Amino acid sequence: MSDIRELYQQMIIDHGRHPRNFGHVEKPTHTKLGQNPLCGDELLLTVKIKGDIITAIKFQGKGCAISMASASLMTEALQGKTIAEAGKIFGAFHQMLTNETNDDSQVERLGKLGVLSGVRAFPVRVKCATLAWHTLDAALKDDDQPVSTE
User: Fold this and answer.
1) 149 in a domain, yes or no?
2) What separation, in Å, do the N-terminal and C-terminal C-alpha atoms of the chain show?
3) CATH classification of the domain holding 124
4) Per-residue pLDDT in tens (0 to 9) along the chain, 150 residues
5) Looking at the 3D structure of the chain, how many domains does it have?
6) Exposed/middle/buried for residue 59 (C-beta within 10 Å: 0-12, 13-18, 19+)
7) How far apart are CA 124 and CA 27, in angstroms?
8) pTM score, two decimals?
9) Residue 94 domain-assigned?
10) Whole domain around residue 109: which residue ranges?
11) C-beta of residue 65 within 8 angstroms of C-beta of residue 16
12) Is residue 150 in a domain?
């Protein structure tokens, strides 16, 4: 196994076992529950927006290591970003996981989020990695529909 792949696996395990920003934002402006029934992942995302800046973002829940790591990495990446920036990052992240091409420059541009690029080799796990992102997207759009990967 290459050193970089091993480092990626270690980071996913670390974020899965010790997620960053795990908890609840006080006085959130947006709250949304997301579920992945196939894997059993469930998370509650709380976000505070001031102007159009994400000033606080946290999550609570349970799930597989990929789901928890993705939510943890997402909250780190989006803290202090505008809603538009968050949307662009989500688009790039989603494309990285669902695109058949192996674009290393895109992975590099995503920084730490690139550690999840290996998930694309396991299509059923893509839902685990994108659950937090779809939940955030629905929360920011004030979508009343439940968020589910099914």
Assistant:
1) no
2) 33
3) 3.90.1010.10
4) 466 567 678 888 899 889 999 999 999 999 999 999 988 999 999 999 999 999 999 999 999 999 999 999 999 999 999 999 999 999 999 999 988 656 666 777 888 898 898 888 888 899 999 999 999 999 999 888 889 988
5) 1
6) buried
7) 35
8) 0.91
9) yes
10) 3-141
11) yes
12) no
Tell me the C-alpha to C-alpha distance, in Å, between residue 110 and each of 57, 89, 107, 124, 135: 19, 7, 5, 22, 19
Residue 18 in any domain: the answer is yes
Encoded tokens for 46: 């709380």
The distance from CA 86 to its chain's CA centroid, rounded to whole angstroms, is 11
SS percent in the chain: helix, strand, coil, step 5: 55, 20, 25
- Are 22 and 60 spatial neighbours (Cβ–Cβ below 8 Å)? yes
Token pair belonging to 137: 């997207």
